[in-house]
Amino acid sequence: MDMEIEQEGNYKPKKLKNFKSIKSLLVLINCIFISVGQISGVLLVRIYYLHGGKRKWLQAFLLTAGFPILILPISISYARKRKEKNATNNNRVLLVAPKLTIASAILGILLGVCSYLYTFGMSYLPVSISSLLSSTSLAFTAIFAYFMVKHKFTDYSVNAVVLMMLGSVILGLHMNSDRPIGESNRRYTLGFVMTLVGAALHGFVNAGVEYSHVKAGVVVTFDIVMQMQFLISMFSTLFCMVAMIFNKDFQAISREAEEFGLGQNKYYMILALSTIALQMMMIGNLGVIFCSSALLSGIVNALLVPIQQIFAVIFLPESFNSEKWMALAMCLWGFASYFYGEYKDSLKKVAENKHPTPPDQV
């Protein structure tokens, strides 16, 4: 009998350890998706605009248009669960609660607006500028996460928010020094503002995704992650599709392809590749939020900024002036400050778990 109890006691820590290992693996895979999707996707979108592309709602639509690919892992997971002998009698295909479905619809529409703001900015701004502005979503995520999911501010997180916002101010004060040839001051300024507003909305959406599953009180599983990703992307795609219909983008695609600077075949190839890349970025971003937190997603996005800068200078006709270097240094300094703060906080939590404070004795 004692042996059975001991085996049962050893089983639970082992099961918990396996769960944490799987969760860490999912976070790693999603981080890879973010990296590949964000770097290649942003470059492809900028190439589209540089060679004659003008459809902003089309690019916003492509950000999540690849969502049907998620049907495959959802179907496989559902089929596997149905075959399990110990499965429950509830065999509904949709496992997402009504509250999460409503939240997904709202977040999907907000994501569609956010996608449009980003693509609007990328149509007028160099990648080196738009990526630095987009990285401020970490600061906005931290602010919204504080109010929505009660993530506490520390000296390090406040330092990170201030530094990243100062970097944006520096870029704003010297924006005319890197304006693309032939681009009007009004459009360049509007692209700058729209990208910054998009970063703020992105921070709100990130915190909103985490808030939705925390408020619903559900256990985060692979099925929930996949289905929430599917619903958010689907509603975002439908929202952008309606905007494209009103803007008559579908009728203009064939004409735009004929006039594209790199040729018609490369036009469709760029659209297809950007769809795949941007969907990878979306899957990775939402996956990291569900498997970890919205703040980690913002950290990964901020960390990719210098890599985006390098690729933009290599593959696109862009330069890197002193103002950009200063803004990049502030971005990296803010990232390092935030990461160090999170690292110290995790060490503190580990120490508290090993040596819990005894309750006060009466």
Give your account of this protein's structure:
This protein is an all-alpha fold. It contains 14 helices and no strands.
Beta-strand residue percentage: under 5%
Q: How far do the termini sit from each other?
A: 38 Å
Rounded to an integer in angstroms, the radius of gyration calculated over CA atoms is 22 Å
Sheet with the most strands, sense and barrel status:
none
Q: Number of helix segments?
A: 14
Concise structural overview:
The chain crosses the membrane at residues 25-51, 57-79, 100-118, 124-149, 156-176, 188-209, 230-247, 267-288, 295-316, 322-340. This is Probable purine permease. The protein has helices at residues 2-50, 56-62, 71-83, 98-124, 127-134, 137-148, 155-173, 185-216, 222-247, 249-259, 264-291, 294-303, 305-315, 322-354.
Topology:
Layout lengths: L1 H49 L5 H7 L8 H13 L14 H27 L2 H8 L2 H12 L6 H19 L11 H32 L5 H26 L1 H11 L4 H28 L2 H10 L1 H11 L6 H33 L8
Helix pairs in contact: 1-4, 1-11, 1-13, 2-4, 2-9, 3-9, 4-8, 4-9, 5-8, 5-13, 6-7, 6-8, 6-12, 7-14, 8-12, 9-11, 11-12
Keywords:
mainly alpha, 362 residues, 79% helix, 0% strand, 14 helices, disordered N terminus
